[in-house]
Each structure stands twice: as structure tokens, then as C-alpha cells.
Design brief:
Layout (H helix, E strand, L loop, with lengths): L2 H9 L3 E2 L10 E2 L7 H10 L6 H17 L1
Parallel strand pairs: 1-2
The structure holds heme C (HEC).
Heme C binds next to helix 1, helix 2 and helix 3.
């Protein structure tokens, strides 16, 4: 599964990725420009269960999108 698909299915219920403040309960993930490694650490404590490859893919996706916003 691509990082984009993992975000859509496992993160978008609580997070947005716009670069602006939103009403999302977990906040917008493109405001803080976190490293992919830091994002991956947060993913492990989120209430979602992903395989390691999916954690890495979604962390890379969120990191890349954040840099573009
Ligand atoms: C059930 C809701 C929920 C889901 C699902 C969820 N999160 Fe979160 N997430 C939160 C909450 C709540 C916080 C804490 C926000 C705060 O207090 O700043 C958080 C914090 C974070 C942070 C730290 C943000 C920061 O700026 O400090 C990251 C990164 C993150 N989540 C990534 C993810 C990713 C990636 C996914 C999908 C794999 C995900 N989360 C799924 C609710 C969720």
C-alpha cells in the first residue's frame, strides 16, 4: 500500500495535510515540518496498527507533502 493510501485509510479521520490550521482533532500534519523519522515515531503511538513497511511509507509521504505545503 502506498503512503498516500495508508494516510487516506488510517490517518485522515484525525489529521489533515494542508499546511494550515484545521479543525482536525489530531491537527494538521503539514504545519510542523517534522522529519520522516520523527513522524514514524509518532505513527507508532497513534491508535492505528500498521505493518512496519506501511509506517515507513506513510511517514515518508507525510514528510514529503509537508515540505510542499
Ligand atoms: C484517532 C485519531 C488519530 C488517528 C487515527 C491518527 N492520529 Fe496522529 N494524532 C492524534 C492526536 C490526538 C495527536 C496529538 C495532537 C496534539 O496534541 O498536538 C496526534 C499527533 C500526531 C503527530 C504529531 C504531530 C505534532 O505536530 O506534534 C503525528 C506526526 C501524527 N499524529 C501522525 C499520524 C499518522 C501519520 C497517522 C496515520 C498512520 C495518525 N497520526 C493517525 C490523533 C490521531
Amino acid at each position: 500500500m502506498s503512503g498516500k493510501a495508508v494516510f487516506a485509510s488510517s490517518c485522515s479521520g484525525c489529521h489533515t495535510l494542508t499546511g494550515h490550521d484545521t479543525e482536525a482533532r489530531g491537527g494538521d500534519l503539514a504545519i510542523a515540518k517534522l522529519s520522516a523519522a520523527d513522524i514514524e515515531s509518532f505513527v507508532r503511538v497513534m491508535p492505528v496498527h500498521l505493518r512496519p513497511a506501511q509506517e515507513a511509507a506513510v511517514a515518508a509521504y507525510v514528510h514529503e507533502e509537508a515540505l510542499r505545503r
